[in-house]
Give the backbone structure.
Amino acid sequence: MRKVRRIRASFAFSVIALFIIIGLTFYIFSTKTDEQKPEIITEDEPPKLILQYTPIFRAWSDTAMDGCPLRNKCTVVFDKSMLPKADAVVFHVGDLYTVKQYPLRAFQGQKHVMYSMESPINEEKYLKNVPANFFDWTMTHLSSSHVHSPYGGYWANPRVAKENSFPAVDLPSDAAAIMKNKTIPGAFWLVSNCDTVSKREKAVESLSKYFRIDTAGACAKNSTMQTLCPKGELCYSEIFKYYFLIIIENTVCNDYITEKYWNNFGLPLIPIVMRKRIYEMRIPPKSYIAMDEFKSPKEMGEYLTMLTKNQTAYMEYFKWRKEGWSKVPWNIKEYEIGYCDLCSQLLQKGREVVTPISDITKWYAEKGGCEKDEFANTWK
């Protein structure tokens, strides 16, 4: 009998202990601070306030949220008197010279956002005077940024496009349309920056020894080619005569793919870039040719020459246009970019207190992974 009583007492104690543990667990999780809880967005919550502290390339624009489905959830202002209330304060790197004194955070959780549309190498001169621990978030072309702001948005492969009902690109893909105006078996290069960090001009010059490259713009060697495509004019009538279009960026950095690609991917020419690693995870495969796919300029020149003589092989670089690739609209959920993504991040994480970036110049340089002239100097 005593043994039975001891078992019952032990069981009762275990049940009581279990309820105490459950109660303590519930209490601990229910009393977490706001910083530990995911932010709950309610319909009647006031819009997040984004203060544009500097101009963007010397201009002020109130169109940052145009087209964004969250435009009623965030407001962009330029009035610095709103600093004490701003959830995010945005500083465009190229206009940091206008900042006479860097402001302190008005409250814990206010985000100082570094906004850059240029490569890390080109931004160093502006960032060197930024105080330590000033920026909390970054908004750049880098996929590793807190807020993603790539130039052209995202490509969705055929499977993802189909699953999400994204419209496939509608671009010319038949031989008749692609080959229509071609009369020059060479590459066209419109360029105005003649002395770059990557020394792209040196790599192009090396290739030109084995394949025809016609250079237009400020870096052309004669006045006719210098004025062939005036700034602001598309001059497609000239470009379409060629088989290839050189679109090498002035700096070769992670994720740095600018309007040179995005404004031209739909043209009836094959783009030529320098480093495959920058493009292979971002744009459709076999829609471009990279210099570093070849051991030497001579090998590449021979391959390009073959393509100009073999229409079947040349057209392989336009097959992707028929496969269902989609250029995803920038304002679709989970694909937002720029200020639309900034608004989305503020709605999700606006109250979080984060550790500031101690050295923004170092952060951008390390994440950017920019190359200098190593490739151009060894590709011979």
Observations:
- Residues 2-30 form the longest helix (29 residues).
- The chain has two domains: 48-153+336-368, 154-328.
- The domain at 154-328 is CATH 3.40.50.11660 (Rossmann fold).
